Amino acid sequence: MSRTGRSERSWRELTRRSFFVILGWFFTVVVGLITLGAGLRFVWPAVLFEPPTRRKVGLPEDIPEKDFRFVDDMRVYVFRPSGNEFYAVSAVCTHLRCTVAYQSQMNRFYCPCHGGVFDSKGNVVGGPPPKPLPFYEVLMAPDGQLVVDTNVCVRPNDRFRCERLA
User: Fold this and answer.
1) What CATH architecture applies to the domain 54-165?
2) Sign, Cα dihedral of 138, 140, 145, 147
3) Helix, strand, coil abundance in the chain, percent, nearest 5
4) Domain boundaries, the chain
5) Quick check: pTM over 0.70?
């Protein structure tokens, strides 16, 4: 016996009481870490920082008649087929999201990745793309610039008519 009157036990012996104390502390730490992690989740906002879907693409006068402007950071073509009409079509291939090139001599869009071909209305003419190219809404900003909204799809025949050019 030891000086305290208890029999000496090896440090390796584990009693039922000490097992449950260790188990209790383990679960307390696990639950505390989960609660801390869930609490820290509310410190940062649950917001996706994505580029805006509406963007100014320039003045109507800057786009030549029967020509287009490619807006690189939006991957959109803005066309001016006649005097005061404008429309915007996506430059993103519906197959693997490559950027399509407009071939003005053939009046079509061509995807260099896998040979997808779209006509001027965005319809699939050849290659693997499953869907036609979407057309986007074109608006006029208060300062007179054209605005393309890539969040609003319109029919290929829809045109924005700029009244100040009429």
Assistant:
1) 3-layer Sandwich (2.102)
2) negative
3) 20, 30, 50
4) 54-165
5) no
